[in-house]
Amino acid sequence: MSAGTVSGKWVWYLAAIAGTFIMATLGAFVRQVSPGNEVVIALGRFGVGFACLAVLRALARENAGASSPGVWWARAAAGGALALFVVSYFKAVQSGTLANAAFLLYLGPLIASSLAAVWLEEGFDRTSGLLLGCAVLGTLFITEFKLPRGAQQVDSLIFGLLSGLFYGLFLLFNNSKLQGGGSSSANTFAQLGIAALVMVPFVAVSGTDLHGADLAWIGAIGVLHGFVALTLVIASLRYLKTIEYGTISYGEPVIAALIGALAYDERISALQLVGCALVFGAGIARVMIAANAPRESVRESGG
Question: Is there a contact between 65 and 179 (Cβ–Cβ < 8 Å)?
């Protein structure tokens, strides 16, 4: 795709927001699957998403095309990080609290933004840093993070930190400066395939305990959260700076908290409401700044 203007960047912000919203509904879908099948759900998410994208690419007669070794290295690293952050997150949830695991996972955008600023020379201006900081603080309020107590919760802390690290690497490796040429469809296709392959041994070790209705829910997760959401996320990462997408992504725990309150009568405290306001405010400011920025070239798809 040819380069547009900064004023046209709102399209990719909308893609990021849509992908974030869809991913925030994952918990509601996972709750419909029999407990103990989290790793199988992850395999289904990546595998079904990969199959959907394969069909779409076949209908469009799109092939992988020639890519440089550097591009394939970045795709492989992003796909592996995608699978590993999901596995680490599940382990963190199983050994500790969901709130703590969610907060540690969302250290990922902060890690990715910091690495992109230094390694990829994206810069980290005061406004971007302030907005990202507000989003991190808001997430801290929403999850009401607490320091671990006991050996099991220490395990949760370790796996939570690993999930944040791998999530950050997934975002970083999808930066256009590393992905280089090729379509976002090809990038997503390769990453979903690699993530599915990485999940196979985890499923072989953990086993499955599925019932008939579970397959339909896993299929829905694969279509919505594998194919649609990850396609939108990876496409938006191609045209947004890592810190820009990172700020938007903090809307996911906000939306998840609201879904919990509306669909499952889960309590939202005053502190969590303040956190929601901080995250939404940072995200809206991020989009408004981009929409009102002076016209200048957006990064070419080749980085």
Answer: no
C-alpha distances out from residue 89 to 25, 132, 216, 296, Å:
16, 22, 23, 39
Read off the DSSP letter of residue 273: H
**pTM of the entire predicted model:** 0.85
Whole-number Å distance between alpha carbons of 27 and 99: 13
Q: Give the integer Cα–Cα distance in Å for 288 and 188.
A: 28
> Per the structure block, which two tokens stand in for 9?
């960047």
Question: Which of 65, 29, 73, 9 has its CA nearest to residue 184?
Answer: 65
Amino acid at 14: L
List the one residue out of 107, 126, 112, 121 whose CA is nearest residue 289: 126
Say which residue the tokens 């209705």 belong to: 213
CA distances from 82 to 211, 234, 235, 264, 302 (A): 27, 11, 15, 28, 22
pLDDT per residue as tens digits for the range 195-239: 999 999 999 999 888 998 999 999 999 999 999 999 999 999 988
Contacts (Cβ under 8 Å, ≥6 apart) of 33? 41, 210, 214, 217, 218
Q: How many C-alpha atoms does 113 have within 13 Å on its Cβ side? A: 25
| Gap between the Cα atoms of 106 and 160, Å rounded | 9
